[in-house]
C-alpha cells in the first residue's frame, strides 16, 4: 500500500490485491457505517494499493476534520479523474491538492461566494427560481399532470452558476440541448470522480482494460467543447463591450489578475460543476418528501403556516430575496442537507502532517474519507436520526454548532455553502407558497425517500435521485401570476 499499515488503528481484514474493495462493493457508506459498530468510528481499510482512514461518527469527524483541519488540508489524486478526465481543463478546486495555486483559486472562489457577494447575486436567483416555477406550473396543467421536478431544478442551479461565472444563461426550456449536454456530461464526470466507482484507481493492473479510460476520455472531449464555447463567448462579449458583470469577466479584465489560463479554466470548471448535482439533489429530494409521504403533508402545512406568520401580506416571494426571516424554513434547509447528505462519502482529503489518534500516529500523506452519511445519521449525536425532523434545528442541543456534514467540514469545507443555502431557502419559500404538493396519481411514480436507496447510481459521488413524479397544485393562480410578473419585471435586464 501507498502508506504502510498504521499501528494502533483498527484495520478491517481484507483479501490480497483488492484489500477491502470487494466487501465495500457499491455501498461504501452503508458498509463502513456497519463496520464502525464493530471496529469503532475510525479505522483503516485497504482499497487495492491505497490505505484509507475512514471516519464514521459525528464526533470523530469533528476531531479530525475540524480540530486537525490544518493537517487535513490537501486532496489526494486518482488515476481516472486526474490523469484522464482532467488532462485538458485542469482540476476543479475541490479535486486539487493543496499548493499555492489551489490556495489562490480557493481564495478567489471564497471571495466571489462570500455572504455580501451572494446577496448581490439574488436577482439571478430571483430570475432562475421564477423561470423554473413558472415552467413547472405550466407543465403541470393546473395540477392534472404529475411532474418529475428534477430537470426544472437542474436548470435553476446550472443557470445560476453560469450567470455568476460567465454572465451567460441558457434561455431555452428544460429540453434545451446545451442544458442536457452539460447535465449529462457533468453527471458522467462526477462518476469518474467517485471514490467508489473506479477500481482501476486502486488496482493499477485493471488499467490494461481500456473501457473505463475510453469512456472517461469521451466525457473529457465533450466537456472541453462546452467549456471552450462558454469561455470564448465571454471573451468575445468582452471584446465587443456586451459582457455582463461576472466572476470570470472580472478576472479576465483585471490587469493585476494573477491567474494563468489553466487556473482560469479550473475556476470556471469549479463554478459550472460544483452546484450542478448538489443543489438539485437536495431540492428535489425535499420536494419528493413533501409530496411523497404523509409526513410531508404535515411539514408543508407547518412550513406554510410559519411563512404566513412572518409574511401575512403575501410578500414572502419577494422578501425571501433580501432576508432570511422564517426560522422554520432555515431549519428545514439544514434538515434537508443532513437527511440527504448528497455527497455521502465526502470529497477525499490527504493529510500533510502526522495526526495522533489515540495510540496511533497516522502519517502525513494518508488519504482520509469522511462517511458524512454515517456521521449525519449518528444516533449518539442526533435524536432519531432516521426521521426527518426540521424542528431539531430550532430548539434542541443539535441546533448549536456544526449542524451537519452535508457541506463537509474544516479547511476545505464547501466554498459555495452561502450561495447554496440562499438558493435552497428561496426555492423552498417560493415552491411552498406557490403550490401544495401531492403524491402522484400512479403509485409506481412515488419517490423513494431513503437517503441511500433514492440514489440511481449507488457508486456516484453525488446522489442522483431516481426519477419519480409528484403533483403540484397551485394555491392561488392570481397571486402566483402576480408574483411571477413582478419578478419578471425586476429581472428583465438580466
Ligand atoms: C447544496 C449544495 C452543495 C453541497 C451539498 C455541497 C457540498 C460540498 C462538499 C461536501 C464539499 C467537500 C467539502 C470537504 O471536503 O469538507 C464541497 C466542496 C466545494 N464546494 Fe460545494 N456543495 C454545494 C454547492 C456548491 C456551490 C453552489 C458551489 C459554488 C458555485 C460550491 C463550491 C464548492 C467548492 C469550490 C468546493 C471545494 C472546496 C475546496 O476543496 O477547498 N458548492 N461542496
TrEMBL record:
Pfam families recorded = p450
Give the record's keywords alphabetically. Answer: Heme, Iron, Metal-binding, Monooxygenase, Oxidoreductase, Signal
Which Gene3D superfamilies does this entry report, sorted A to Z? Answer: Cytochrome P450 (1.10.630.10)
Molecular-function GO terms, alphabetical: heme binding; iron ion binding; monooxygenase activity; oxidoreductase activity, acting on paired donors, with incorporation or reduction of molecular oxygen
* Listed cofactors: heme
Q: Report the pathway entry.
A: Aromatic compound metabolism; phenylacetate degradation
Q: Which segments cross the bilayer?
A: none
This chain belongs to which protein, by name? Phenylacetate 2-hydroxylase
Species of the source: Oidiodendron maius (strain Zn)
Amino acid at each position: 500500500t501507498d502508506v504502510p499499515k498504521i499501528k494502533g488503528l483498527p484495520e478491517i481484514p481484507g483479501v490480497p490485491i483488492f484489500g477491502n474493495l470487494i466487501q465495500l462493493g457499491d455501498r461504501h457508506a452503508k458498509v463502513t457505517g456497519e463496520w464502525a459498530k464493530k471496529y469503532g468510528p475510525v479505522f483503516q481499510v485497504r482499497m487495492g494499493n491505497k490505505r484509507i482512514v475512514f471516519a464514521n461518527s459525528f464526533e470523530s469527524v469533528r476531531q479530525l476534520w475540524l480540530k486537525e483541519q490544518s493537517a487535513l488540508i490537501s486532496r489526494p489524486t486518482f488515476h481516472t479523474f486526474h490523469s484522464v478526465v482532467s488532462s485538458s481543463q485542469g482540476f476543479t478546486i475541490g479535486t486539487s491538492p493543496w499548493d499555492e495555486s489551489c490556495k489562490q483559486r480557493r481564495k478567489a472562489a471564497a471571495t466571489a461566494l462570500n455572504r455580501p457577494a451572494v446577496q448581490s447575486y439574488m436577482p439571478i436567483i430571483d430570475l432562475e427560481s421564477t423561470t423554473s416555477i413558472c415552467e413547472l406550473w405550466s407543465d403541470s396543467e393546473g395540477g392534472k399532470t404529475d411532474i418529475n421536478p428534477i430537470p426544472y431544478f437542474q436548470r435553476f442551479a446550472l443557470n445560476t452558476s453560469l450567470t455568476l461565472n460567465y454572465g451567460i444563461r441558457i434561455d431555452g426550456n428544460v429540453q434545451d440541448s446545451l442544458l442536457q449536454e452539460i447535465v449529462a456530461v457533468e453527471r458522467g464526470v462526477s462518476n469518474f470522480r467517485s471514490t467508489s466507482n473506479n477500481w482501476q484507481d486502486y488496482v493499477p493492473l485493471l488499467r490494461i482494460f481500456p473501457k473505463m479510460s475510453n469512456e472517461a476520455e469521451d466525457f473529457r472531449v465533450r466537456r472541453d467543447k462546452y467549456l471552450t464555447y462558454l469561455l470564448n463567448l465571454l471573451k468575445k462579449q468582452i471584446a465587443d463591450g456586451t459582457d455582463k458583470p461576472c466572476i470570470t469577466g472580472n478576472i479576465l479584465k483585471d490587469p493585476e489578475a494573477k491567474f494563468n489560463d489553466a487556473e482560469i479554466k479550473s475556476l470556471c470548471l469549479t463554478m459550472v460543476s460544483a452546484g450542478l448535482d448538489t443543489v438539485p439533489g437536495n431540492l428535489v429530494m425535499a420536494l419528493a418528501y413533501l409530496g411523497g409521504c404523509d409526513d410531508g403533508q404535515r411539514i408543508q402545512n407547518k412550513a406554510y403556516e410559519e411563512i404566513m406568520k412572518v409574511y401575512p401580506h403575501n410578500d414572502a416571494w419577494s422578501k425571501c430575496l433580501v432576508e432570511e426571516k422564517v426560522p422554520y424554513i432555515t431549519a428545514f434547509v439544514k434538515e434537508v442537507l443532513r437527511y440527504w447528505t448528497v455527497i455521502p462519502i465526502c470529497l477525499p482529503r490527504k493529510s500533510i502532517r502526522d495526526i495522533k489518534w489515540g495510540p496511533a500516529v497516522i502519517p502525513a500523506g494518508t488519504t482520509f474519507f469522511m462517511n458524512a452519511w454515517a456521521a449525519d445519521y449518528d444516533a449518539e449525536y442526533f435524536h432519531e436520526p432516521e426521521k426527518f425532523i426540521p424542528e431539531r434545528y430550532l430548539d434542541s442541543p443539535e441546533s448549536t454548532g456544526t449542524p451537519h456534514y452535508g457541506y463537509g467540514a474544516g479547511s476545505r469545507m464547501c466554498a459555495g455553502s452561502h450561495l447554496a443555502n440562499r438558493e435552497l431557502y428561496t426555492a423552498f419559500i417560493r415552491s411552498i407558497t406557490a403550490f401544495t404538493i401531492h403524491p402522484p396519481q400512479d403509485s409506481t411514480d412515488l419517490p423513494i425517500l431513503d437517503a441511500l436507496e433514492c440514489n440511481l447510481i449507488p457508486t456516484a459521488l453525488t446522489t442522483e435521485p431516481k426519477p419519480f413524479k409528484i403533483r403540484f397544485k397551485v394555491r392561488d393562480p392570481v397571486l402566483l401570476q402576480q408574483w411571477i410578473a413582478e419578478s419578471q419585471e425586476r429581472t428583465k435586464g438580466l
